[in-house]
Design goal:
A hairpin with a 3-residue loop joins strand 1 and strand 2. This protein starts with a strand and ends with a helix. By secondary structure, it is of the alpha+beta class. The protein is 43% helix and 19% strand. The radius of gyration is 17 Å and the shape is globular. Keywords: Cytoplasm, DNA damage, DNA recombination, DNA repair, DNA-binding, Hydrolase.
C-alpha cells in the first residue's frame, strides 16, 4: 500500500491532483478542501489511502493523517464506500463527525450528500464504538489561502460536489461576511468551503 505521496504538484483539477514522484505522475483523488492547499509547481506531501478494485487502483489523498484515518474508518460501516467516505470528510471535520456519532446527531450526518436518515442511523450504530470521543481541539484560524481567486475555487469545489453554480454562489454570499477579513486579505478556501457546505445543507 502507498501510505503517502511526496513530490511536485503537476496539475490540480476539480476532484484530483497529479503529484510527480520519481518521474511518475500519480493521480490522487482529493476533497476540495485538500485541493485548495495545493499549488501547481509546488512541492506537496499527502497522506494517501489506496482503494483496490478488480479493474482499478485509486489513490485518495488527505490534508493530514487524521482525515485519512477517519476516511478509512467510516468505510467499516456497511454501505459506506470510498466516494461517500470522501464526501463525509469533505463536509465534516473529523471531530465534528465524532461528535455527531457520539451524540446520535442524525441531522448533522444528513448534511453529507448521499446520506439519508436511515444511512445516518446505521453509521451511528456501527461507528459509535470505533470513532472515539471528540478531541475538542482548540486552535487559531487557518492560515489564509495563497490563491487570490478564492471565490471561484470555492464555487468550483461546490459544483464538483454536485451543487449548481447558482446555489454555490448563494451559499458563498451568505458565508462571505463571516470569513472575509477587514484588511481585505484572502480567506482560507477550505474554511469558506466547509462553511458554504454547511449553509447548503440547511437549505
Amino acid at each position: 500500500m502507498i501510505a503517502y505521496v511526496s513530490g511536485t504538484v503537476a496539475a490540480v483539477t476539480l476532484t484530483s491532483a497529479v503529484v510527480e514522484v520519481g518521474g511518475v505522475g500519480l493521480e490522487v483523488q482529493c476533497t476540495p478542501g485538500t485541493l485548495a492547499t495545493l499549488r501547481t509547481g509546488h512541492p506537496a506531501t499527502l497522506p494517501t489511502s489506496m482503494v483496490v478494485r478488480e479493474d482499478s487502483l485509486t489513490l485518495f489523498g488527505f490534508v493530514d493523517e487524521e482525515e485519512k484515518s477517519t476516511f478509512e474508518l467510516v468505510q467499516t460501516a456497511s454501505g459506506v464506500g470510498p466516494k461517500l467516505a470522501q464526501a463525509m470528510v469533505a463536509v465534516l471535520e473529523p471531530d465534528d463527525l465524532r461528535r455527531a456519532v457520539a451524540h446520535d446527531d442524525v441531522k448533522t450526518l444528513t448534511r453529507v450528500p448521499g446520506i439519508g436518515q436511515k444511512v445516518a442511523q446505521r453509521i451511528i450504530l456501527e461507528l459509535k464504538d470505533r470513532l472515539g470521543a471528540p478531541t475538542s481541539r482548540a486552535g487559531g484560524a487557518p492560515a489564509p489561502a495563497a490563491a487570490a481567486p478564492w471565490r471561484s475555487q470555492v464555487q468550483e469545489g461546490l459544483v464538483g460536489l454536485g451543487w449548481s453554480a447558482r446555489d454555490a454562489d448563494r451559499a458563498i454570499d451568505t458565508v462571505a461576511r463571516d470569513v472575509v477579513t477587514d484588511d481585505g486579505s484572502a480567506p482560507d478556501v477550505g474554511v469558506v468551503l466547509r462553511a458554504a457546505l454547511r449553509q447548503l445543507s440547511k437549505a
